[in-house]
Amino acid sequence: MIPIGAGAQSRDALKSENRQLRTRLEAAEKEVDDLRNKISYLEACLKAYQGIPQEVLDFYKQEADAQAAAQAATSQPGDATATGTTGTVTYKTDSLLSVWYIHNQMRNSSEADGMGEMGDVHFTSSVSDSVLIDRLNKMNAFIKLPYNETVRNKIVLYSEKMPYRMSHMLALSKFYMPIFEETFRKYNLPMELKYLCIIESAMNPIAVSRAGAAGMWQFMYSTARHYGLQVDSYIDERLDPFKEADAAARLLRDNYNIFGDWSLAISAYNCGPGNVNKAIYRAGGSTDFWTIYQYLPQETRGYVPGLVGAMYAFHYAKEYGLTPADIEMPAHVDTFHINKNLHLRQISEVLGIPLDEIRSWNHQYYRDIIPGNQGTQILRLPYMYSSQFTSRQKEIYAYKAEEFLGGQGGINRQTGSTGGYAQTSGGGSRSGSSYVSSGGRGGRSGGTTRQPQWVYHTVKSGENLGRIANKYHTTVSNLKKWNNLRGENPIIQPGQRLKVGKR
User: Fold this and answer.
1) What CATH number is associated with residue 472?
2) Mean pLDDT of 177-201
């Protein structure tokens, strides 16, 4: 028999337990609803993600990586701070190693590889078309600057979507652009062409593409050799931005002589004259860039628009809050002629210069050996080290020569003689090297003593001078001059050997 009070207590306990269970059930139902909402959200994100081209996802990941890498370089004594619209970033400025740091950071990113391949991706911007068109007109460029949706995309890309890369390129441009301007002026070419190094490599002198093109101007091996750049077991002059820029200027000049149009010449720089000629043929013979646009290789289609975008971003950087990264650059870079084998570590350890700092101005010596025994080579050093290098050369060449050069330091592999002394312009001598000039912002001179050799082509049935000139990146007028061909349309015969250039 249950006591009278016990029944009431039992009912109260059951009600309490029921309330607790209801509370827990409501909490569980809420959690289930939250999970369902999260699942719906993730499904929507996944669907949207799958609709975004991979190159765009990679692009934003690389920009984020660049930002993280820049921030990771903070907290060093002597650091300086640069502030832009995207936030505050600290860059290494305690020595000229900052130049190497930027180059190395850019090498670890493939952003430049994809900037010309954004396809049909569309970026949004608050800047109206009318403002963009007005700004382009005010630039007063020698090369015609078109405007359409494709060009607009590139303008937004460079001016708004890659602030960290742009800050680095703006900083590097202070040193490199005056040198490139000098080079293009020498060949009487439009100054706007200097921005092609932005499209090619994001101004990275040690960039190497997936296809094997190298350097700031991205020359393939065969093209580099054709335009006189040395590429062998010790040297890759494609990594010398000054010499590669000179070759790039000559290639662009030759392309323009073929097509007579800068948009086509610029396109041919990227994909070759042959592919541009194919596009012209498929477009019914039209030589208008936008008419042949759809027939060009995918990457090349974005090349001219990319040039316009890069020019615009550099010209109007301030309007977008883009400022150069705080990179310390030398006021002058001195150039020396090296006539004996020399290891960069010999210079580094004797003079106390960080090895990476020396490398940053001499990327072409990818084994760290300057093969002066092969012929005169170029060494570049910031001006503050020039007097030390000049006065201590004998000590530098002797320092650990056997260890660093492995017996290569004193024997000329071409002649078998011991390395001699270079004659200076004043008739004196210096042990293995001669001073050239301070060259302002980056002295340029030199090349090797290797004599260029003629390249010959054997005419095949059906070939004409235009096709042969196109194949060897030269002009019909050059072929006529080199081979003493007379008349407006000289006749060439199958089996005839023609000079087509030197290498």
Assistant:
1) 3.10.350.10
2) 94
